[in-house]
């Protein structure tokens, strides 16, 4: 049960807030804005690595798996074992590649066997005119080959080559699409990996495996160490230009968000302190009268700090609700997807808002305690 003394303090605090509701509303608005920005920005800071990680995957894979000990290829079975060491919820795609030299109309070309279902996941930046091969004897060619050989979608392309057992193969392949990347892929011929293996008379082998995984640079380095410790047939490598750029952007963006949050909290503190200082000046006679009839500094300080506490809690609660909406709006407008909310940040935001408000009240409280009742009651 609340004793009479505490009930009296609560009644005085609520009465004071209601009587000066216009000024208190300004302070409450400042606290609400501060809490909104605080929760919104912190939520974004926690979720931005995931959001930006998915955005950066549009630039291609960030992890390579290569054969060890100068071996030309690695078994797909070993690749699957290595991939199983990675977290499934963060893995976006795994694309194997196998390279060989062939000829078409006496011109040498590089033919690449791959998995077309995975390549769009690890290389979403590919611009493809037409469609990806779906049936046997269908290929995708680079734009440089199409321009050089004057080939179009629907054309057939004869190829000749030798298998690993030196037997010759001759095939007629249908072009279903033309790819343009601005990189080496523009000069390659792409075919289904299993079909290329049949031509080469080799099974379940790959030379390079591209992996796209949503992870920070430090997480990727950890995954590399795990693979190195448990796999001897392949060597994992970071694609540094992707991971370094991603880490740099994330670091700068997070620093900017924290800086904005800090500035907003400082402005909130100034707003609350200014408002409470005005309240103290308006209540000089009231404070002087209370001191004259026996109120001590401790009770007066408690009253003002209690007002700040109420403002901090109420403003923090309203700001936390608005902050969730704010974070969702920013995430949807910038990334086009919903944000993942860390619910423990809600009470944290309310506590921080309350602490900031109480700290902002310290200077006005100090000013209130310096009021001399005799001077105030004389009208000075």
Protein architecture, described:
With 380 residues, the chain is an alpha+beta fold. The protein has two domains: 4-55 and 247-377, no CATH class; 61-238, no CATH class. 57% of the residues lie in helices and 20% in strands. Strands 1, 3, 4, 5, 6, 7, 8, 9, 11 and 12 form a ten-stranded mixed sheet that branches. It has a two-stranded antiparallel ribbon with strand order 2-10. β7 and β8 (168-180) form a beta hairpin. α2 (21-56) packs parallel to α10 (297-334), α2 packs across α11 (345-360) and α8 (240-282) crosses α11 (345-360). The relative contact order is 0.18. The model has no long low-confidence stretch (mean pLDDT 83).
Topology diagram in text:
Elements: H1 4-19, H2 21-56, E1 63-67, E2 74-75, H3 76-83, E3 91-104, E4 107-114, H4 116-122, E5 127-130, E6 138-142, H5 143-149, E7 156-162, E8 168-180, E9 188-192, H6 193-200, E10 205-206, E11 208-213, H7 217-230, E12 234-238, H8 240-282, H9 284-292, H10 297-334, H11 345-360, H12 362-369, H13 373-377
């Amino acid at each position: 049960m609340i004793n009479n003394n505490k009930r009296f303090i609560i009644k005085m605090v609520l009465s004071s807030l209601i009587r000066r509701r216009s000024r208190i509303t300004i302070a409450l608005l400042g606290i609400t804005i501060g809490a909104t920005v605080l929760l919104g920005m912190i939520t974004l800071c926690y979720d931005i690595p995931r959001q930006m990680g998915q955005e950066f995957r549009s630039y291609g894979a960030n992890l390579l798996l290569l054969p060890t000990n100068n071996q030309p290829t690695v078994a797909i079975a070993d690749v699957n074992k290595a991939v199983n060491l990675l977290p499934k919820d963060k893995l976006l795609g795994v694309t194997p590649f196998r390279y060989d030299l062939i000829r078409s109309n006496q011109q040498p070309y590089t033919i690449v066997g791959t998995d077309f279902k995975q390549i769009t996941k690890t290389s979403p930046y590919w611009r493809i005119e037409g469609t990806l091969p779906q049936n046997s004897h269908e290929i995708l060619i680079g734009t440089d080959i199409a321009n050089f050989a004057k080939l179009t979608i629907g054309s057939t392309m004869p190829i000749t080559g030798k298998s690993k057992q030196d037997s010759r193969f001759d095939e007629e392949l249908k072009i279903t699409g033309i790819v343009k990347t601005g990189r080496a892929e523009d000069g390659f011929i792409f075919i289904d990996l299993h079909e290329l293996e049949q031509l080469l008379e080799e099974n379940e082998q790959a030379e390079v495996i591209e992996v796209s995984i949503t992870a920070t640079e430090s997480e990727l380095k950890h995954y590399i160490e795990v693979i190195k410790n448990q796999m001897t047939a392949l060597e994992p490598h970071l694609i540094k230009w992707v991971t370094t750029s991603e880490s740099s952007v994330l670091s700068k963006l997070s620093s900017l968000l924290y800086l904005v949050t800090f500035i907003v909290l400082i402005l909130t503190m100034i707003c609350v302190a200014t408002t409470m200082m005005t309240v103290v000046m308006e209540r000089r006679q009231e404070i002087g009268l209370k001191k004259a009839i026996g109120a001590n500094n401790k009770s007066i300080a408690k009253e003002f700090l209690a007002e700040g506490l109420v403002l901090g809690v109420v403003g923090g609660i309203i700001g936390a609700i608005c902050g969730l909406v704010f974070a969702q709006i920013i995430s949807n407008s910038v990334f086009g997807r919903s944000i993942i909310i860390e619910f423990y940040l809600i009470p944290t935001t309310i506590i921080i808002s309350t602490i900031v408000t109480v700290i902002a009240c310290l200077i006005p409280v100090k000013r209130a305690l310096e009021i001399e009742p005799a001077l105030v009651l004389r009208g000075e």
